[in-house]
Structure formats: structure tokens, C-alpha cells
Amino acid sequence: MNHTAAPDMIPGRPTRSDRFGWLPTTIDRRLRVFAWLSFLAEVIIIGTGGAVRLTGSGLGCSEWPLCTPESLVPILEVQGLHGAIEFGNRVMTAVVGLLALAVLMITLHVISGRRLVVRALWFALGGIVLGVLVYTVTAVIGIPGADDRTTAVIAAAFMSAALLLAVLAGATDSLRQPTPRKDLAVLAWVVLVGVMAQAVVGGFAVISNLNAFVVGFHYAVSLTLVCVTALFLVRLGTPQAPHAPAVPRWFSVLTHVTGLALAATIVFGVLTTGSGPHSGDEAITRQGFDATVLAHVHSWPGYILAALVLTLLVAAWAMRLQPRTWLLVLTAAIAVQVGVGVLQARTGLPPLLVGVHMVLAALSAATYVVVVTKLKKPVA
Fold it and tell me: What is the pLDDT of residue 351?
């Protein structure tokens, strides 16, 4: 009997798994588009968040989740440009959340059809009902000793916590189901949970009158989400297969040491900015570390990072290793970062350069994540 080979099994033709990590072609393209949009939105919100802080608009909206006690949107006649900038960042948060939700829903549909999508939507509906119930009960009963403004803020915080709890429950349920490409589902859920948690952290930043540590943590989480969305894009184009080392062991170890230097540079950079002049509002005075001393401490791991990345780049090109192209990108990003850092320190920390420094830090971290993924290669 003469059998006709299935299209994906014709000898010499790349299989669907080889080309798309088993993902269907049309859905794969749609998922790629939304994944890229999600990544770009995560980068953009770092820029808008930086604009809030660097223009002194951190308390442009005095309330959370409302902008004023009476209005969701700013009253320009009263709050002016500061209110518009702060509210614009809040709108960007909604855009980031919707894109994260779209990526998650498409991912679940790709790996399971409608089954996991429907289950996730039921958890979402339950979270909305629970959140509204919690808000209503808190607002009606009130908080002992609290005024109406504090009660409203606490009620909104409880509602956000209820929604976040529902998302965590939905993620737990979804990831317990046996599915292929669970790596993509994990990353998509992490982004959505992170975005929702960020909304709560942003609320605490307003309630705490822009506490430097809360604001710094807010930025660090945003940077982490940029890295996770970048990793999702890489995994989306990587077939699900066993992986083998693509570089010598010493090169891999040195790459991870470089990651520690990068993390230290970012942490000290956040502390430096938190102790510097850009507090987010003219009425807020930073307390804590000496910004001048921290600026020097921040530069030390920065220079070590630059030296390590340059060493990796030279070694990768000399040995023709797989990560060499992305190491070239990382080297360029770090070089620009060093130049911007030195320039801003010598010109009195102009807001534009500080904002560029913040965005480049996120892009550098995302590029480093891509470099790490190139340390191994899929094998047949």
C-alpha cells in the first residue's frame, strides 16, 4: 500500500517543531506580535515612570486608585502638567496589563486550545466578583479611626489584593495542567502577575509619599519584567528540545559572574537615584544615604561590568562562540551607559540623561538575558 507522508514529515523539509517549536504558524505570528508589543510597552513604561519622577510629578495624582478624591482623571486646572504626566503613566500601566493578558490568553490557547483559556477566565471572573465584594464591604463597614480618604485607599488596596490572589490561583491551576511548552505559560503568567503587583506597589508609592525604597523597588520590578518579556521572545523562537553547552565551561562561569556585576550596578544605581535630587515631587526630601558617595560606589561595579563584558566579547569572537553577536550588542549598550553615567555626573544630573540611563539599564539587562540563553544550544 502506498502511503503519502504528512506535510511536516516529508524528508528534507523542516518540521513544524524545528521551525516554530511546534507552534502553529498563524498563531505563532500573532503571538510574536503581541509578545513584541508587550516587551516594548514594558520598556516604555520605564520611560514614562522616569518622566513622572524626573519632572516632579510623583504626587501629580494625590490619590490612588483615583487621581483626586473626586475624580479618576486629573483636573488640569488644578493639577496642571504634573497631574497629566502622572495619570499618563497610570494609563500606560493599563496598556501594559492588557498586553500581558493578551499574550497569556494566546499562549494558553496555543498550548491547550480553549481548555486552559476557559479555566483562566473563570478565575478572572471570580477575582472580579471577590474584588468588588471586598471593596464594598470595606467601604461600608469602614476602618476604625480612619477618615474617608484612608478608608477608600485601603478598600482599593484590598480589592487589588483580591484580584492578585485570583490571578495567582489561576496561574497555579493552569500550570498544574499537563501541557507542552509549559515554559511559555510560566513566563506569560509571571508577566501578568508582575504587572498586577506593580499596580499595587505604585499605589503604596503614592500612599507612602514616594518613599525612596518603595519607588526603587517599583523600578527594579519593572526592569525585571523587561527581562522576562525578552526571555519569552527568545523561548518563543526556540524549539522544545534537549539543550547542550554551546560554550566552554569557563566562559559560562564568567558570563554568570558578569550577571552579578550587572545586578550590583543596577542595585547601587537605584540607591543612588533614591538618595539624589530627583525625588519625584518638590515637597519630598530624600533621607538616607549620601548620594555623592553612592555615585562613586555605583561606578565601581559599572567599570568591572564593562571590563567583563569586553573580555567575553573578545573571547567569543576569537573562538567564534554562539553568543558573540549579542555580546557585541551588550558591549555597545554598556559603553553608552558608561558614557551617559559620566556625562550626567559631570553636568549636574540633568533629568533627560537620568531618564536615558534608566531605560538603557533595562535594555542592557534584557540583552544580558538573551546572552545567557545563547550559552546552550538545542540538540536533536
Answer: 81
357 and 218 housed in the same domain: no
pLDDT per position as a tens digit, 330-366:
999 999 999 998 888 788 778 888 889 899 999 999 9
- The answer to the question of residue 11 being in a domain is no
The separation between the first and the last C-alpha atoms of the chain, rounded to the nearest angstrom, is 31
Task: State how far the alpha carbon of 208 is from the alpha carbons of 5, 62, 150, 173, 203, in Å.
Answer: 65, 11, 12, 34, 9
| 164-168 CB contacts, 8 Å cutoff, 24+ apart | 164/193, 164/196, 164/197, 164/200, 165/127, 165/130, 166/123, 166/124, 166/126, 166/127, 166/128, 166/130, 166/131, 167/123, 167/124, 167/127, 167/192, 167/193, 167/196, 168/193
Range of the domain at 43: 22-240
pTM score, two decimals?
0.85
Q: What is the pLDDT of residues 19-29, one digit of tens each?
A: 345 565 555 78
Residue type (1 letter), 121: L
